[in-house]
Amino acid sequence: MAIHTTDYKQTLEAMREKLSAVVPDAELQLKAELVCEINTLKQEQSVVILGHNYMEPALFHTVPDLVGDSLGLSQAAADTEAETIIFCGVEFMAETAKILSPNKRVLLPAKKAGCSLASSITAEEVRELRKLFPNTPVVTYVNTYADVKAEVDICCTSSNAFDVVRSLDAEKIIFIPDEYLSRNVAQDAGLPITVAFRNSAGQIELDGDFTNGILAWRGRCEVHEQFSVSDIENARKQFPDIEVVSHPECSPEVVSHSDFAGSTTKLVEYVQKSKAPRFLILTECSMGDNIIAQNPEKEVVRMCSIRCPHMNQITLEDTLHALKHGEKEIIVPEDIRARALSSVERMLSIQ
Ligand code: SF4
């Protein structure tokens, strides 16, 4: 899928073929120059470029050697011979790559590419939750920083969250940091849910009694929390034959009004397999563009214009800068990395 040539005309031609439906030609002409420069430097270095599903189309469909979701990319990159990983995604994703590939240099092509979920909880807050509820297993969604992963018992992804919770076979489980993912899992598992948050006095407070089921944390994805049931109703009114797919970081109301909910990889697979004529895809809007570019016969209704400001930090210019200058290198202290790895490996062992 990547474009490997360093010839400008061939690059532009290949980009036009894939992307003319979603990227203006003037932009393609400018970006083709960057792609050629990146490809030239790639040939001189032992490097693998990873592209998360939320990268903008002119990046996603050109320089990454591998594309997909964060954990799948980190696992695949660990299996390559490359000495350097450039992770076109946000910081917690690059950290996950470093956790799995300690001997590789991992670069994030942005000075700062955060995530509202990852920054919603700290390692200290996990320690506080553990003190409040001793002997209660703690699960974290992979959308957290390495020091948080180091404090928990097991990680999960949006694909395996339900299986991870079930595998623990515990009466009480702490599940951080995405409140909506926790609510969706609790709903599927038929478990009661209580939500913890830090109040204005700086203390951890609960919205009810946590006697059994899931204790969630009030973290939200600033993109997925914006989708509403009325978005779905409006789409269905206009296009009665539309299929609505959503990411489980959306609210339980949005998920239950959708035809399918799943991780970014599962959403792509679903749309590719479905015979429906058109789709509403309730996740970061670049992914809709990337699906259109890969599946020109599918119609994706352009009602989504919610771009993640953190994913938006990653550009072809910055990818070129990372290759030229080796920046920004992701460093995870070894004691944190080793403990975070245990949480990731425990998850992988139940798959
Ligand atoms: S889309 Fe949401 S979960 Fe993903 S990086 Fe952006 S803020 Fe974080």
Question: Overview of this structure, please?
Answer:
42% of the residues lie in helices and 16% in strands. The protein is of the alpha/beta class and 351 residues long. The chain has three domains: 8-115 and 311-325, NadA-like (Rossmann fold), CATH 3.40.50.10800; 118-220, Rossmann fold, CATH 3.40.50; 224-300, NadA-like (Rossmann fold, 3-Layer(aba) Sandwich), CATH 3.40.50. A six-stranded mixed beta sheet has the order 6-5-7-10-8-9, with helices on both faces. α13 (285-294) links the parallel β13 (278-282) and β14. α1 crosses α2 (25-44) and α8 (161-168) packs across α9. The longest helix has 20 residues, at 25-44. The radius of gyration is 21 Å and the shape is globular. The model has no long low-confidence stretch (mean pLDDT 94). Residues 90, 115-117, 143, 221-223, 284, 308, 310-311 line the site of iron/sulfur cluster. Iron/sulfur cluster binds next to loops.
Summarize the structure.
This protein is of the alpha/beta class and 351 residues long. The protein has helices at residues 8-19, 25-44, 57-60, 70-78, 91-100, 123-132, 146-149, 161-168, 179-189, 229-238, 252-256, 264-273, 285-294, 316-325, 334-349, and strands spanning 47-52, 66-68, 84-88, 105-107, 138-141, 154-156, 172-176, 193-198, 204-206, 213-217, 242-246, 260-261, 278-282, 299-300. Helix 3 links the parallel strand 1 and strand 2 (66-68).
